[in-house]
Structures are given as structure tokens and as C-alpha cells.
Write a structure and sequence with these properties.
This protein is an alpha/beta fold and 476 residues long. The chain is built from 22 helices and 9 strands. It is globular, with a radius of gyration of 25 Å. Bound molecules: 6-phosphogluconic acid (6PG).
Amino acid sequence: MADQQYEYGMIGLGTMGRNLLLNMVDRGFSVAGYDKDPNTLELLNKEGAGKNLHAFATLEQFIQSLKQPRVIIILVPAGRIVDAVIEEVKPFLNSNDLLVDCGNSHFTDTNRRINHLNDQGIHFMGTGVSGGEAGARFGPSIMPGGNAEAYQMVKPVFEAIAAKTNGVPCVAYMGKGSAGHYVKMVHNGIEYAIMQAIAESYQMLKQLGGLNNTELQVIFESYNQSAIRCYLLEITSAIFSEPDDLTENRLLDMILDSARQKGTGAWSSQDAMNLMVPTPAIDASVVQREISGLKNERIFASNVLNGPDNDALLGHDGLVPVIEDTLHFCMICIYAQGLALIKAASQQYQYDTDPVQVASVWRDGCIIRADMLEDIRKAFQQEPALQNLVVSELFAGRLNKLQKHTRSAIISAVSAGIPVPVMMSNLAYYDSYRSAWLPANLLQAQRDFFGAHTYERIDRTGSFHTNWQALTDNNG
Ligand code: 6PG
């Protein structure tokens, strides 16, 4: 085998790495792979027999096989393993070589790694990849960030392997520094919130509407033929009809109601809190996964705490369109919160991220792909100074119509004791955002009362403090 024959390198040949590599090779690129696990090497060399690829067992051979400047994609679990890979490979690299981390790394780690490798003139790009195993193999959504010139080294291959919307690749430069990983983190936050909104709809249709899995499958399929058509509804509908291998039941009914998480949703909420950007639907969806994990406590509490007396089933005929509109309302508010966070982060961290490009790359290939992302892209394109999607010309009118049914759904859920925190937090976000007046004057007064934190006035500028205690002393 001739030295320096492969255009790209891939470190990490697990499910995502292997499939991304095969996708690259199918698009006409030559790729060398490296992994410490001999099984993954064997699997790839077998699957890729006759193709323009080779999986190497030693790092030296792998590096030696790459054309220069080297472009190496890293696809290993986020965290310390990424640092370990960087330290292992760094002595073999030259200035202008490029490392591309395509895992779900935390954006602050990406910043640190960019600076660390910059000393040696090595480029490092944090790149979000979404779409799971099938996406990696046949067309993911790709969110690259970092040095704009270094991006040119991977642009052709990313555009070739990405999913396409009307022929346009679902990849675009997301901005400087850790912008790519930031956008992917928010993608996952949105993913959590939409999943939870769908789960809340499921509980309402099941418990209030009394629908069985077959009926739920039909209804979610019909939702997926409407304006809220999206990948997560598509898989939800399919889930309801899946039989269980081990019993006579549907598989869904045999799955424990306790959801795991790897943490990217919580990261979104944490940074939203740091930047003081409200993302209540993402926050609530993280909280619901946490509460779902308290299974034993919930079982105990279910025997101690009461719900409302009236829990009679409502007819599902009325519920079905009401839930459809509520999901529609929620999806708009969730994308609005996620994109508002990206906008604020872009300013704070100087990413220069374009929301039009973000919406554009999310249109296909990724987990949150949805038909409405085309209109979201248009909304930001038509109004470049748009503060928030909810007030855009394309979406404000829709929300004005959808809010009525959203209120009905929430009232029904609350009166039956069904928890719908993502629906509720979206409605509260909407009602708060559209309120020219909020009771925060009282908060200011309370802060000044107990902590002399001062307050602002509506009739003149400056900070003011009142000796409130004296008032109570007099009254007392
Ligand atoms: C994607 C997914 C992917 C992963 C999630 C799962 O875009 O392809 O988001 O990144 O499946 O991170 O996250 P949780 O394990 O936290 O649910």
C-alpha cells in the first residue's frame, strides 16, 4: 500500500465513525480509519472490501497513509477520550493539519482544544453531526464551526455526504470558535423539548382520550401529514405499532417509563441560564427526564398524594385537533427559544452564527428536521433583525390562532391531573413575551426592601433605594 494515499482519516470506528466513513467513501473520497478495538477494524475492512478505504491497527501506519495537510475526523465519545486522542495524535501532526471533532463535545471543551492546538498551528474544528446511525451512513445534518479557512478543507466532503433539501446540502459554516458544537448542543435541547411535548400529547390522548396504540398510531400518522410534519412524529407513529418479541403486547407498553439522558439537553439549559436567555421548554424537558428517573419515589407518592376528583375520560374527537394545534404551538415556541439562545450566544461568544443557515441545515438529516424549518429559515431571511421567531410575520399569525386550542389542551390536562410541563411552559413563555407589563416591579421592590438592591423607575432614569424597613417599623 502506497504511503500518503488517503484524503481523509477517521479516528473512532464505532457505529457513527464507521457509517460516516462508508458514506464518505461511497461519495468518491478515500478514507483511512483507525481504532484501538480490533473488532471494529475487522468489521470495517470486511464491510469496505473493494472500496477506497482501509482501517489501520497502529496510529503510525494510519498517519503515514494520509495525504498532507492531513484532515482527520474524530468520532469518539465526548469527554476525556477526545483529549486522549488529541494527545496521542498531536506528536505526529504538522502545522496546517486539521482535526475535526464530530462528537457531541461540550463547547467549552472545544474552545480549550482550539487554543491548545493553535500553539502548534494545528487547526481544530468542533462539528455537530446529527441523524444517528442511518444519518451518518446516508446523509446527516452537519454543523461545522471554527476557523473559516480550515473549513474549506472539509467543505467538499461535508457537502457531498450531508443530507440534501431540494438539492441543497444540510451543512453550512456555523461560525467561529466552538459555534458548531454550540449549535449542535441547542439542536439537542430542542430535540428534548419536542420529544417531551409529543410524550405529553401521548399521555393526554391515552389517558384523557382513552385511545389504544393502534388508534394512537393512526392519529400520530395523521399529525405527520399536517403542518407539523417532522421526523420525531414519524418515528412516534411507527413506535405505537411495534410488537413486542417477548410478550403479546405492543413493545411500547413493556418499556420502563424512566428516560435516560447523556446531558446535552441540560447543557443547553445551563448555558441559557448563564446567558440569561429564557428556554423554559428545554428546561422543563430536562426536568421531566429527571422526574421520570425517580420511578420508586413516584410509585410511593402515587399512593400518598391525590389528583383531582374528576378524572373522567373526555371524548377523543375533540381532543385530537386540539392536541395537533398544541403540538404546532409548542414546536414554534421551542424552535423560537432555541434560536434565541443561539442568537445570544453568537453575540456573547462572537461566533457570527447566521440563524438562516442554522434553520437551513436543520431542514433535513437531523433528529429535529421538520417541514416548518423551511418557513423558519424564511422568517429569519425576510427579517434579518428579527428578535424572536414568535413575533415574525410568518409565525405570529399562526400562534395567535393556535393559542386558543393550546389553552384548552392545558386546561383539560390540569383538570385531569396530567402533567404537561412543556406545553405549560411554552404557553407561559408566549403569554409572558407578549405582556407589555409584567409584575416584575414587585420583584424589584422586594429586592430593594430586603437587600437594598435598588430599583428603576418608570418616570425617570437612575437607580433608587427606599428605606422600606422604616415603613414596616412605623406600621409595626
Ligand atoms: C442526534 C442525536 C444524538 C444523540 C443524542 C441523544 O442529533 O443524532 O441528538 O446526538 O442521540 O445525544 O441524547 P440523550 O442520550 O441525551 O437523549
